[in-house]
Write a structure and sequence with these properties.
The complex is a heterodimer of chains A (about 290) and B (about 325). Chain A has about 290 residues and is mostly helical. Chain A is about 65% helix and about 5% strand. In chain A, the strands form 2 sheets. Chain A has a 3-stranded antiparallel β-sheet with strand order 1-5-4. Chain A is globular, with a radius of gyration of 20 Å. By secondary structure, chain B is an all-alpha fold. The chains are: A mainly alpha (about 290), B mainly alpha (about 325). Chain B: It is a multi-pass membrane protein. Chain B: One of its GO terms (cellular component) is membrane.
Chain lengths: ~290, ~325
């Protein structure tokens, strides 16, 4: 938690002093390490669990392919769907890493804490993210250096202004670190902190940009639910996440300000998770085990 | 068995919903959002009713049937709530669809013309999520080891024909199909009532029919565990057919046209009409592309706006 605050402020300071290169170097290093190293270990574990013997050369080759394509599509130009796919992969790998190494309660506490931090950081006047947004808009500088999820509007007409704009603003957001509790001595990286992006939700010319940190925490919550409870709970949490996001996005686009996209969907998802353990799943089981339609 | 059984159960039980989804919803983002909102409303209603079940079970000894009734009533109430939300959001939907984006059904701006389509979307959302909740845990256990229906036969030494036994996955699949289609039909009926309730005094008939049929079908299915599952399923499918015919009547057809349409669709499926149409369409499209004359490289005159003369402008 403290790590989070520290690195957010450090990042904003870097940005204010126009240390762009430091930021981009940090981001590139983080994404490369995530995509290569974590992916390798994750797929290795998967292969072990499914009893598929993977030889070392083939796994190195596959990891290199996956990671190389990912780095290329994130930091350089790529097809929009590929870019989005790799952003989602980043979030998923981060969440997997967090899930493997943190106990259950820590995950929940971190989710709650980060929701609160999100609200604080974005809305209150002294929050670093608000400062970031304001300085960026004051400078008229749309080229934030970082990684954002860019979902252009669903219009499929070939609007060249829109696509070029989305290309230039793809590498824009700021990365911070989360994961305050993880400082294992046998961690694989030299910097055991994981990238977390600011959570700005903004609409620019019909494109909606969502910070990567949001995705990490949605994935984290869903992964936690999937590990510990039957599938129906996972479905309920997934749906409530989606609907929370659906409610948040139009609110953001109507008010044209940056809003914290994190707490509301997580709140509904947490509500459904706990109530599903207590009430939903027993009731549903009672009905479906005896083939009674509800 | 294992994972193959699970996958095939999923495919079988959700193919009607996938078909409906791809025909009506997948091409339009607004409808996708409404679909998910429908699922969410059903989920909320299930939450309320399961909390009620929890509360009641501490007070009364045998509350299952009562809480089932409560669940059904709350589901219908959530349908009505969704209708009210959609009515209030009409203006918002107007704004979205007028931006020149992909247009929704030719009148989301006017809930009149598109209300049955929206009812289909919402009903499909509710149906899919209720079928998923019903079957997901069961299908997940199908993927594991074991043979369905074996222990009972081993114990008693003969196959009891009143137990679902090896037909259990089939029962789940049929129930899921029933749930999806029933929710679509009930939503259309209930929304028709909500729409007309202010103006006509007899407008409550479709809604009442939906509630009554829901209760009937649910309590009928409680006979399933006693072994009469063939009878129960056939009656339920009959009720589903009646509901769908009623929805057709609501949407403006007649029973005669309904029967004709069903017959026609059987004939079409038999003669592979859709595949033939598809192939012909592709042929026509390629022919059209080849028929467009090459544009002359010389400039056209300034007044080439007249329709029908664009091909004959002098160089």
């Amino acid at each position: 938690m403290i790590f989070l605050v520290l690195t957010t402020t450090m990042g904003v300071v870097c940005y204010k002093k126009r240390l762009y290169k430091a930021i981009t170097a940090y981001i590139i290093a983080n994404s490369v390490s995530l995509l290569l190293v974590y992916a390798f270990f994750h797929f290795h574990n998967l292969a072990q669990a499914c009893s598929i013997p993977m030889s070392v050369p083939s796994s190195v080759f596959l990891t290199f392919q996956f990671g190389g394509l990912g780095v290329l599509s994130l930091h350089w130009k790529a097809h929009r769907r590929l870019h989005q796919f790799y952003l989602v992969m980043l979030a998923a790998l981060t969440a997997l890493f967090l899930l493997k190494n943190l106990p259950d309660w820590t995950v929940w506490i971190s989710i709650v804490a980060i929701s609160i931090w999100d609200i604080v950081a974005v809305l209150t006047p002294c929050g670093p993210l608000k400062m970031l947004v304001e300085t960026a808009s004051r400078r008229g500088d749309n080229n934030f250096p970082a990684i954002l999820y860019n979902s252009s509007s669903y219009v499929e007409t070939p609007e060249t202004p829109d696509t070029t704009r989305s290309h230039s603003t793809q590498l824009t957001e700021f990365s911070n670190s989360s994961n305050a509790n993880l400082l294992q001595s046998d961690s694989l990286l030299t910097t055991p902190v994981l990238p977390r992006r600011t959570r700005e939700v903004r609409e620019v010319e019909g494109t909606i940009r969502l910070g990567m940190g949001d995705f990490v925490f949605y994935s984290l919550m869903l992964g936690n639910a999937a590990q510990t409870s039957p599938l129906t709970t996972v479905l309920a949490c997934f749906l409530s996440n989606l609907v929370g996001l659906t409610i948040t996005l139009p609110v953001v686009s109507l008010s044209q300000t940056a809003l914290p996209a994190l707490p509301f969907p997580l709140l509904i998802a947490a509500l459904f998770y706990f109530s599903s353990h207590v009430a939903l799943t027993p009731f549903t089981n009672l009905c479906s085990l005896t083939l009674i339609l509800f | 068995m294992g994972i193959v059984l699970t996958v095939s159960c999923y495919i079988a039980s959700f193919s009607p919903s996938i078909a409906l989804f791809y025909s009506f919803i997948a091409h339009d983002p607004v409808r996708i959002i409404l679909f998910f909102l429908g699922s969410f409303f059903w989920l909320v209603s299930l939450l309320i009713s399961s909390l009620a079940w929890l509360g009641l079970s501490t007070v009364l000894p045998n509350t299952f049937l009562v809480s089932l009734g409560v669940c059904i009533v709350v589901q219908e109430l959530s349908r009505v709530a969704y209708f009210m939300l959609l009515k209030k959001a009409q203006k918002g939907l107007n704004k979205i669809t007028r931006h020149g984006q992909i247009s929704v059904a030719p009148g989301v701006s006017d809930l009149h013309n598109a209300r049955h389509m929206l009812a289909l979307v919402c009903g499909l959302g509710m149906g899919v999520i209720s079928a998923l909740f019903y079957t997901m845990n069961a299908f997940a256990t199908f993927a594991g080891p074991g043979t369905i229906g074996l222990p009972m036969a081993l114990e008693t030494g003969h196959i009891d024909s009143n137990r679902a036994g090896k037909y259990l996955p089939l029962c789940y699949v049929l129930s899921a199909i029933l749930l999806t289609l029933f929710h679509v039909a009930w939503t259309i009926m209930v929304w028709d009532t909500c729409h007309k309730i202010g103006r006509f005094p007899t407008a409550f008939v479709p809604g009442a029919a939906a509630v009554v049929s829901h209760l009937f079908v649910a309590f009928l299915s409680s006979l399933n565990s006693r072994g009469f599952y063939i009878l129960v399923f056939s009656v339920q499918f009959l009720v589903l057919l009646i509901c769908i015919a009623y929805c057709n009547v609501i949407m403006g057809g007649t029973i005669q046209s309904f029967v004709t349409a069903i017959g026609q669709s059987f004939v079409d499926a038999f003669t592979l009409k859709q595949i033939r149409n598809f192939v012909e369409e592709r042929k026509m499209r390629t022919q059209q592309r080849q028929a467009v004359p090459d544009e002359p490289m010389t400039e056209r005159g300034g007044a080439s706006d007249e329709p029908g003369t664009s091909n004959t402008v002098d160089a």
